[in-house]
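Structure first, sequence second, as always.
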């Protein structure tokens, strides 16, 4: 009898499906890439906020700002030189040949532009008495707050004016009390000098370069106004910056009508 050939084993559909499901259930899911964890901050490596340094810096900045504000406030409150008297009347490029507005406002002040200021070794005929400017001796009288007991030469006195001095002169007949009052305005004050003046036509006469005021009383308030406006004013002083001190002249001053062109021997 012929034998039946056996074919490949058959598999039922239900068996195949169960085996497929089993295979799927046992298969591992695809691996995910590893998650990299951020490294923890080490206490050692952390940057600490420098609060102390910040506080010190803030204090320094505030202190500096306070100083700047104080300086500005002081500058604003501080009066300008000569009480702010700097406005000139006129358009001459040489300022002292123009008239100072503050001086003009003082009743009785006379202004005369004095352009000549060469050094000479002889006596000079001046256009005002006492003189208020012009050619003069090369040797200036000491004007560092000096009260002269005797009259000095015009030519040495005018050189003082060129250096910014206010020169107070008085008639020798002025009372001792008035002389004392005037000397208190002068004694020890830089750019100030005082001396008697022979045959003066008023009790008191005050001079600066280009300006003159004649008064009758040592307590006249115009005297102080004149000093405040004109003493060493940069607008009215021909040789601003030159010294008023000359100890040699102070010790050995000239005499009226006899100017010294160099220190006395």
């Amino acid at each position: 009898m012929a034998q039946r050939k056996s074919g490949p084993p058959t598999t039922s559909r239900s068996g195949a499906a169960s085996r497929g499901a089993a295979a799927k259930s046992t298969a591992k899911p695809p691996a995910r890439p590893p998650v990299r964890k951020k490294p923890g901050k080490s206490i050692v490596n952390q940057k600490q906020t420098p609060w102390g340094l910040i506080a010190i810096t803030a204090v320094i900045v505030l202190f500096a700002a306070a100083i700047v504000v104080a300086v500005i406030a002081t500058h604003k409150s501080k009066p300008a030189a000569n009480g702010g008297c700097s406005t000139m009347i006129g358009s001459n490029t040489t300022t002292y040949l123009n008239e100072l507005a503050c001086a003009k406002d003082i009743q009785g002040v006379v202004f005369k532009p004095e352009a000549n200021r060469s050094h000479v070794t002889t006596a000079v005929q001046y256009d005002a008495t006492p003189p208020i400017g012009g050619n003069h001796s090369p040797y200036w009288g000491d004007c560092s707050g000096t009260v002269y007991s005797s009259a000095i030469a015009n030519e040495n006195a005018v050189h003082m004016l060129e250096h910014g001095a206010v020169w107070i002169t008085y008639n020798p007949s002025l009372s001792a009390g008035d002389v004392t009052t005037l000397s208190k305005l002068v004694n020890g004050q830089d750019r100030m000098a005082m001396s008697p003046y022979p045959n003066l036509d008023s009790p008191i006469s005050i001079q600066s370069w280009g300006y003159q005021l004649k008064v009758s009383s040592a307590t006249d308030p115009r005297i102080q106004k004149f000093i405040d406006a004109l003493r060493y004013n940069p607008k009215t002083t021909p040789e601003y910056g030159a010294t008023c001190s000359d100890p040699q002249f102070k010790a050995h001053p000239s005499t009226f009508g006899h100017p010294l062109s160099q220190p006395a021997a």
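Margin note: The longest helix spans residues 51-77.
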